[in-house]
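Field reference: "sequence" (input) and "structure" (output). Example, TIM barrel protein:
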Amino acid sequence: MTTPAPRPSSPSRPAAPSGPSRIRVGSAPDSWGVWFPDDPRQTPWRRFLDEVAEAGYTWIELGPYGYLPTDPRVLAEETGRRGLRVSAGTVFTGLHHGPAVWDRTWEHVASVAALARDTGARHLVVIPSFWRDDKTGEVLEDATLTAEQWGHLAAQTERLAREVRDRFGLRIVVHPHADTHIDTEENVTRFLDATDPGLVSLCLDTGHYAYCGGDSVELIKTYGERIGYLHLKQVDPEVLAAVRAQGTPFGPAVARGVMCEPPRGVPELAPVLAAAEALDVDLFAIVEQDMYPCDPERPLPIARRTRGYLRSCGV
């Protein structure tokens, strides 16, 4: 009797390991239209915590420092009684400027890292500074780094990783982001190739990577050992084509709806999650649907539907 050959897996949906998922799903203030520590158009922080728990999530990020309480005891009480835990804090850096910006950078990083550590998080999401203003579109610096600036970016990121690890016990995950110098496939791979895998991992944001023309599944396949964290997000292809053609800055593009509710956009998240599962490592996958500004009644229904959709993807 001849044993039938196993059916090959679809190349767009890598086979995930059997057993419980090692991906822990959460959401972030961003999905409630929160971009700033304080803004009257944003959802109040208590409402965010209530609604993110109601939507079925157990993990959250801190969001912009100062939006949630910065006293770790208060924050632990507020999250704990809602059944929530903190996965990461977020910082913005301009490390390509070299050692001259270190002291100012570290002052900001240390505050966020301390709160993340004290609330039980193990990651710090590092976002590069924007080369143009995300509101006005004003060009702040050249969109292309020089060789010297690439050297500063790599060296100072490794320095940041060591300091954050040694002082706070956290691992940094660098977030490729639209309108920054770590954005396209070319720039992401150049950054990864220039930094120490033992120190620097990536926060792969599926929406930002698609916004800049990248393929998340291929990045996971090629640089799987560097993927330390996920942000789950989709872009609307029609809006994206329009904002690219018009050279629209990222902030106004978000206001036009370039980041959309899954599964209405790209990339398809099921193959991304399958590729991530195939790595067989523990990963956070935090939903981060940019919606600033937005009506405060919008986020909760979207969050509920998104959580249900992700369950249909196996996480």
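The chain has one domain: 23-312.
The longest strand covers residues 85-93.
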